Amino acid sequence: MKVLVVYESMFGNTRRVAEAVARAMATTFEVRLEHADAVAPEDVAGVDLLVMGAPTHAWGLPRAGTRRAASSKVVTSGDLVLESGADTKSGVRELLASLHGGELRGWVAAFDTRRRGPGWLTGRASTSIGSALTRLGPRELVAPESFLVDQRDHLIAGEVERAEAWGAMLRHELEHHGATAA
Ligand SMILES: Cc1cc2nc3c(=O)[nH]c(=O)nc-3n(C[C@H](O)[C@H](O)[C@H](O)COP(=O)(O)O)c2cc1C
Question: Which end of the chain is more exposed for a tag (fewer CB within 10 A), N or C?
């Protein structure tokens, strides 16, 4: 079965989560890991599971303005490193806007990175991704999941391992339900 893991990331945290999820699924399935900027609508056609993740920005999905704000934060923080081209690349919001639904035949699953705290307070990009994808037709294989960063925008200890476990759970669910979401 074919799995496509798509992400965007400013400081590398969401990329590291996406890599862990892809790693856990690659033991069984054919897995592609791509930045959203490199994905066209035709790339999601024929995929049995589309996994999509983004950092939570301003209680939702990143947009051009919040990406610029993140890039400025790198200069003042001292210890954050900007992912290559992250402030000018397009991301998950733009990819979602380009999909029409006909391309999506399989299951979908959404994740985000965000600060610690209740989701209603921090916002969760994953719920925006999940509802945008399900509005197009496909069903979510599992509920949207969040992976947490600290106040300095570094993943808290254990989150990469939890992302691997989440990927393994997706693998089991896909094996159990099969490729057809309909
Ligand atoms: C401009 C900006 C806005 C943010 N807004 C939120 C927010 O509303 N809620 C939240 O939990 N975290 C917020 N954060 C923290 C990000 O979620 C965190 O930087 C991100 O998860 C790191 O992932 P990345 O390294 O992949 O970019 C914000 C960060 C930036 C730079």
Answer: C
Instruction: Return the ligand 1 atom nearest residue 86 CA.
Output: 27
Q: Could you tell me which of 105, 73, 106 has the C-alpha nearest to residue 87? A: 73
**pTM of the shown model:** 0.97
Atom of ligand 1 nearest to the CA of 16: 26
pLDDT in tens, 115-149: 999 999 999 999 999 999 999 999 999 999 999 99
Neighbours of 137 (CB within 10 A): 16
- How many residues are there in the chain? 182
User: Phi first, then psi: what are they for 4, rounded to 5°?
Assistant: -120, 120
What domains lie within the chain, and their CATH numbers? 2-177 (3.40.50.360)
**Contact indicator for 39, 5 with CB cutoff of 8 Å:** no
Which residues, judged by CB distance below 6 Å to any ligand atom, belong to the binding site of ligand 1? Answer: 9-14, 55-59, 66, 69-70, 73, 113-115, 122-123, 149, 153
Q: Where are the alpha helices (DSSP H) in 52-102?
A: 64-77, 92-98
